[in-house]
Amino acid sequence: xxxxxxxxxxxxxxxxxxxxxxxxxxxxxxxxxxxxxxxxxxxxxxxxxxxxxxxxxxxxxxxxxxxxxxxxxxxxxx
Length: 78
Fold this sequence. Notes:
The chain is mainly α. It contains one helix and two strands. Strands 1-2 form a two-stranded antiparallel sheet. β1 and β2 form a beta hairpin. It is rod-shaped.
C-alpha cells in the first residue's frame, strides 16, 4: 500500500502522487503515515461489520414474518 496516503484535511484515502485531494481539494503536501491508514481501515472494518449486522437483522425479521404467515396458513388448514 505504498501508493496511497490519507488526506490531512478530510482523512480520506488518496493516491500519494495526487497533487490535490479529489474529495476536498486540499493540497496533498505530505503523505500520511501507516498509523493514519490503520485508523482509516479500522473505521472501514467497523462500518462493514455494522452493515453486516444490519443485513442479518433484516433477514431475521423477514424470516420471522414468513414464519408468522406460515403459522397462520397452517391454522387455517386445520
